[in-house]
User: What shape does this take?
Amino acid sequence: MTTKNTSENNVGLKLFISHAPHAWKGISVSRIMWLVMASLALPTLMGIYLFGYYALGVILVCMVFAVGTEWACKKLRKKPFVMDGSAALTGLLLALILPPTMPLWQAAVGSIFAIAIGKEVFGGLGFNIFNPALAGRAFLSVCFAGRMTTWALPMGFKFDAVTGATPLNESFVMPAAKASLHWDLFIGNVGGSIGETSLLLCLIGGIFLLVTKIIKWHIPVAFMGSVAVFALIFGEDIGFHLLAGGVVFGAFFMATDYATSPLTVKGRLIFGVGCGLITMLIRQFGGMPEGVCFSILIMNSLVPLIDRYIQPKPFGFRKDLQKA
Assistant: This one.
């Protein structure tokens, strides 16, 4: 009995080899990006309501220039441009952490830097080592320090914003009743970035991401928990430091970025604690009132080191066999 050589039947077939994980959960990159943008809907609408139509202009400019920059970078690199939502999300995130009175051309510059330098220069989606939106904000903070520290008080749908100090500024006058300040911080009735002011809506968006399993709880809990612990150590008001600034927004929407956060549970916890510690150190001893942006960027740079030394044990690993 003879067997027919079937190699001819296999001509044209390709063997695809990829790294783990190999199990697909049925959710694409595009779907993840649009779900994250959906979670930001309420903070975005609240920012537009509090700071007026100009804030909407900042958001649109950031998103349009982010997508346009990614398209241009792909063309220059001779790579296919895929509208997966990642560039639009970067633009939206950047806009939400900018002052509502930011000049539109400066917002556009921030978006261009975020995509071109913060993302594409490393190879595109998934290869960047820093959160692109935070990289864009850090760049704007260095180039336009005055504008990045000029805040508007909530005015509703008005075009002429009134500037004022945010709660983390030294010039901010603390009210006699802490409860009233905490409530204003909770609902968003304070000056600040477009999308960071309302803790309530940021929490709703963060919980949505947790329920849909887009993010895991380790980094947000470690981040906010460490801020609370170090505020207690420094003798500060715990509630104030959790409610003011961008701690909650950063913990849920920035620090949990897949490409720039650790792979393991222990690594994520270390990452979150590091973010909280650096945030409090900058707030207490630094030359700027807020430290969330730079704390996450600093920890982003340490992620390769964390992933190198915090690794899961292989299945069936035994210490006695290793010693032998």
In short: Residues 157-165, 170-176 have pLDDT under 50 and may be disordered. The chain is about 55% helix and 0% strand. Residues 227 and 233 are 10 Å apart (CA to CA). Residues 53-76 form the longest helix (24 residues).
